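R.M. (postdoc): so does anyone remember the format we settled on? I'll just put the structure tokens first.
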């Protein structure tokens, strides 16, 4: 194994010691939002193969600031055309020079620059929502059919959020976390329209990327078959999944093994390797008649194993990525979990085996 790869893997464990456009074929989406003292902006992305004229569209910002209108519309300027696969950053409630074709726009702070005489309000990371409307007509701002996109953070239930829910752009009762200083909320373009809830296509980006793609190369891919033995005391098949995305700098990245009971003294043994098991590789688990439990990762190429006390409902396996070097981008890991008891004379030799995950670190 290459030396830098070994170092990246060592650092990772020292720290911790799917494409296509869905049913609502959105071409232009809200792709990233940052809101702190250094930068306050919202980014749009034209994902499509053709240029789109958005000069008759508007951005809607919803707040919950007491004593304020709480709903604001800013008209995209005449002549604003987004080229294929291009980005547009709108610096919210800030003064600057709007030069066509630069990819940068400023809303200004004058109430006359906003629609309907409502003025504007500073973009806050604690809570808020953005919508993209394909209109600047006041009479249409309660029409679900003209909403192109929606995102809520910090809280949900904003005015007009129900319109986005009606057309499948958002999900009831869902919102993203508040935007922390120095980070942004960013969207994986490959997940737009391909997740059960719209907010699951978003992630916390610790390295904001205005006017550029939000992520490169981050992959979480499930393979293999979860199984359990008859007589187990799991809550269901032990299923491994990822919390957030494996992006360099993401301090919140973790794996979770769902359906662990956590009250019978069981443990979760997590194996980390460099590859999937070759087809036909025999299992090293104790055989159990009629139950096909086989390792999906290559146990001959294990890097390390962790033994963790099982937790109630789901067992977290933290893998923070905030201290990894840039050379870790592209690092590929394979993980699988075995739920077992350390009292084999009392319980089964093992309770079950999870699916496997292929994880590739992106940036």
């Amino acid at each position: 194994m290459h030396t830098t790869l070994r170092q990246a893997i060592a650092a990772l464990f020292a720290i911790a010691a799917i494409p296509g456009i869905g049913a609502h074929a959105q071409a232009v989406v809200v792709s990233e939002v940052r809101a702190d003292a250094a930068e306050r902006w919202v980014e749009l992305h034209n994902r499509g193969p053709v240029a789109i004229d958005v000069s008759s569209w508007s951005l809607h910002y919803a707040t919950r600031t007491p004593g304020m209108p709480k709903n604001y519309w800013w008209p995209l300027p005449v002549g604003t055309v987004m080229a294929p696969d291009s980005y547009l950053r709108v610096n919210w409630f800030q003064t600057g020079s709007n030069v066509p074709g630069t990819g940068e726009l400023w809303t200004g702070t004058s109430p006359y620059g906003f629609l309907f005489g409502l003025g504007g309000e500073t973009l806050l990371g604690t809570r808020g929502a953005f919508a993209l409307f394909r209109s600047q007509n006041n009479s249409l701002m309660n029409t679900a059919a003209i909403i192109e996109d929606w995102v809520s953070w910090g809280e949900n239930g904003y005015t007009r959020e129900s319109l986005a829910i009606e057309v499948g752009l958002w999900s009831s009762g869902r919102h993203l976390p508040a935007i922390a200083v120095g980070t942004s909320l960013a969207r994986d373009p490959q997940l737009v329209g391909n997740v059960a809830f719209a907010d699951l296509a978003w992630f916390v980006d610790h390295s904001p990327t205005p006017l550029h793609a939000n992520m490169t190369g981050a992959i979480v891919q499930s393979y293999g078959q979860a199984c359990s033995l008859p007589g187990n005391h799991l809550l269901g098949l032990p299923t491994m999944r990822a919390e957030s995305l494996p992006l360099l700098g993401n301090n919140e990245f973790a794996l979770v093994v769902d359906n662990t009971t956590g009250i019978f003294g069981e443990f979760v043994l997590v194996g980390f390797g460099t590859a999937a098991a070759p087809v036909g590789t025999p299992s090293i688990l104790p055989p159990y008649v009629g139950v096909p439990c086989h390792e999906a990762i290559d146990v001959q190429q294990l890097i390390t194993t962790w033994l963790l006390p099982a937790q109630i409902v789901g067992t977290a396996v933290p893998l923070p990525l905030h201290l990894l070097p840039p050379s870790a981008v592209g690092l590929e890991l394979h993980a699988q979990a075995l739920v077992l008891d350390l009292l084999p004379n009392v319980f089964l030799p093992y309770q079950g085996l999870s699916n496997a995950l292929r994880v590739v670190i992106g940036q």
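R.M.: ...and that's the designed sequence above, right after the tokens. Also worth knowing: Residues 219-360 form a domain with the Immunoglobulin-like fold (CATH 2.60.40). The CA atoms of residues 131 and 150 lie 4 Å apart.
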